[in-house]
Design brief:
3 domains, Rossmann fold, 511 residues, globular, phosphoenolpyruvate carboxylase, domain 3, 19 helices
Amino acid sequence: MGFIKKGIIEARQYQQNIAESVLEKGSTLVVLPTGLGKTIVALLVIDKILGKGKKVLFLSPTKPLAEQHWKKLLESLEVPEENLILLTGEKKAERREREWKEAIIVVATPQTVQNDLKKKIANLKGYGLCVFDEAHRTVGKYAYTFVAEECKRQGVKTLGLTASPGADRKKIEEIMACLEIKNVETRVESDEDVETYVKPVEMRWIEVELPEEYKEIRKPLEELISKRVGTLRKLGYLFPNAKRVGKRGLMEVQKKILRSRDSWKKFRALSLHAALMNLLHAHELLETQSISAFKEFFSRMEERRERSKAVAGILEDRRIKEMLERAKSIEIEHPKMKRLKEVVSDESKTYIVFVQYRDQVKKIVEELREAGINAEKFLGKRKGVTQKEQQKTIRRFREGEFNVLVASSIGEEGLDIPGVDCVVFYEPVASEIRSIQRRGRAGRAKAGEVVFLITKRTRDEVAYWAAQKKEKRMRKMVAGWSKKGEGMGGKAERAKKQKPRGQSRISDYFE
């Protein structure tokens, strides 16, 4: 290991086996559960590529992730800092052009690399490897796809890393086509060469009943949703019954509406669509979050009344007025909150609580603190949250200043958050990719636990089982392709010839 510093890493046998396979078979997609060392595999491959006198490009989807990988490479490799470059769009073009020329390894976001390639201040001549971290993003118009095309032109070997490529067969084939994958290496926790390194993770489900007071409000809301769905159907838009409709499904319906040539019909349908998006969001908040989140959403809608006819139509509806009047007197908290406080009550353990909505993250932190629980929020870079603040929060969590981190989706993908004793899903997510990434935070260095808070007979149950089904399908597909590497070329070639796929059926999106 000529370029890897002594004593820095101790490569496990399966990591060495995967790295050898990459070097022998060429461009490879590596699918490894979170915590099993995808970065170590990349380091082993990078070491050999550098040994051949070639340069390396390492891509990460976000700036914090890129910086995290840059630091890891810097501490692991015998490469001078002036030749191991972290490129960001914040640097001036002249400086980036100089750094491209000096670099042996470039770590960057794909957007920065795409821009520099287009502006001709960079090229990939002399590069032997491009690492695509979180490779499941290599689809459609995302910048990864542009860089992958340039790699093909320059004959640069690609290495895709992901814990979860997804359950959509066509999407996986598109990823493999974009990266010109010739080989898939995958391991699961039960594989013989992996199981000794995997710590047991206990899965626990805590089911709660939606309070009767919530159900009384939910009923008129569902009637309003059903009525508007029926009107959309009469207008000629194929749509399932109200019980199965999801917000993502509505997004697909919107495309169909926009293609309509009948301007009156289009205007009417778009207004209905906008109203439905608001009503479905309110329904989701009531079922899975809290009555306070539900009421706050309608307060914000009130602020938008003058700007949106769809919003004004909802707020002027007699049933909505009656429903909101009834909601004013309801103070009972969602039963998930009580159970959450019980789950995270052990001060000797560390927890990450994943929450879908930013406002609810803040509310949960307030509630936990009132109960004497040492909790902090972790949010993405919006509304005044800076990268430095994010890093400070992670450092404080790692150093034990608090033991409960309540995170939005920013905490799911790749960030250098330490492993914890317990991961809590405040609500299940239907995405198998997000579910895998969340669960991967538990059981890294020691046995862990994953807890799902599920409201019975609501979309919580639907989301949980949707993710489970898709994950099972994903594992079966990837394992099959890993065993039959020779069969992938045809699949990838067919995917390459197809246009990037939009969803062909509205039902693909129902949750």
